[in-house]
């Protein structure tokens, strides 16, 4: 399970000037993250705008990632969708192209019972032999994962962990206790990376890592070496940037604008996620400077 621990970047969606998937930009961005000390990439999640893309587009993105960095970075693919059928199709595709693991939120839109979510996840698990990572993000899905359901899921060898994007570190600790020592718990809120690690997370998956991977790698290294004071200094620096990013019209738009300033053009987010207006570009430039330090 070591290959899933540490820093996993939730990769941004990459579009061309017409808003279509750019496999070239996907490859460029994926390559950009090799050699920095990060563990891997989380493809097609919240940050990756998977929910705003068709099944065919999501397959194209994953194929480009695998072609470029498969074997060099651990690739976890988010296959969550509104319909179980689509998730199963994406899960099977993930296995064919050689991804390391699949992951999924509960199905979105309908208010679902735990039994329904369990069937949804189980269908994906049964359709492949890939490891499965539960994606818990109740603030967007409205589904509160109980420790009972987590325990039932974790009892299967194929279910290796949970990515927890709720902001409660207590819940994170409870999930770790419920899943057992071998069950991976991956921190979601980037602004609480160190807190999550301190209370039992094995690493994290985050959307702001992609504009400052080196800083998150520093937090992780310091934590591993027991240098907690230094780790906190890095976390505080990261949090100043996140505070600025969250004040922009859109978080992912802001991250993409920062990458563009550095010469990596991956387009704008897809609507309904907003692009960054030109009047906010001074702030984007300030945040970029802050990261580069
Ligand atoms: O986007 C959210 C919503 N959380 C992400 C992360 O937990 C999920 C987090 O990185 C994710 O990255 C993904 O699935 O792609 C935040 O963007 C970050 O902490 C800033 O608040 O909660």
Give a description of the structure.
The structure is a single chain. By secondary structure, the protein is α/β, with parallel strands linked by helices. It has a single domain (2-225), classed as TIM Barrel, CATH 3.20.20.70. The protein is 46% helix and 13% strand. It has helices at residues 23-32, 55-69, 84-97, 114-127, 138-141, 147-154, 169-179, 193-198, 213-224, 228-246, 251-261, 281-292; strands at residues 6-10, 40-43, 74-78, 101-104, 132-136, 159-164, 184-187, 203-206. An eight-stranded parallel barrel has the order 1-2-3-4-5-6-7-8, surrounded by four helices. α2 runs parallel beside α3. The longest helix has 19 residues, at 228-246. It is globular and about 50 Å long. The structure holds ligand NGF. Ligand NGF is lined by residues 10, 42, 45-48, 139, 165, 188-191, 205-208, 242, 246, 251.
């Amino acid at each position: 399970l070591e290959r899933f621990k540490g820093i996993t970047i939730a990769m941004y969606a990459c579009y061309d000037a017409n808003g279509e998937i750019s496999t070239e930009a996907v490859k460029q961005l994926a390559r950009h993250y090799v050699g920095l000390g990060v563990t891997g990439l989380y493809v097609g999640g919240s940050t990756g705008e998977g929910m705003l893309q068709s099944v065919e587009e999501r397959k194209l993105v994953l194929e480009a990632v695998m072609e470029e960095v498969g074997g060099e970075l651990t690739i976890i693919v988010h296959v969550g969708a509104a319909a179980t059928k689509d998730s199963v199709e994406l899960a099977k595709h993930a296995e064919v192209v050689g991804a390391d693991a699949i992951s999924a939120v509960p199905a979105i839109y309908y208010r679902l019972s735990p039994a329904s979510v369990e069937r949804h996840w189980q269908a994906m698990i049964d359709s492949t032999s890939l490891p499965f990572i539960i994606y818990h993000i109740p603030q967007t899905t409205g589904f509160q994962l109980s420790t009972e359901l987590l325990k039932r899921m974790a009892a299967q060898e194929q279910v290796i962990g949970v990515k927890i994007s709720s902001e409660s570190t207590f819940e994170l600790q409870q999930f770790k206790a419920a899943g057992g020592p071998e069950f991976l718990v991956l921190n979601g809120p980037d602004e609480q990376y160190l807190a999550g690690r301190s209370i039992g997370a094995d690493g994290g998956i985050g959307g702001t890592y992609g504009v400052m991977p080196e800083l998150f790698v520093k937090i992780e290294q310091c934590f591993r070496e027991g240098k907690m004071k230094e780790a906190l200094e890095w976390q505080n620096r990261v949090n100043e940037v996140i505070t600025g990013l969250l004040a922009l019209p859109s978080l992912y738009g802001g991250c993409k604008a920062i990458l563009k300033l550095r010469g990596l053009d991956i387009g704008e987010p897809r609507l309904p996620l907003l692009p960054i207006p030109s009047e906010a570009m001074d702030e984007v430039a300030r945040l970029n400077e802050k990261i580069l330090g």
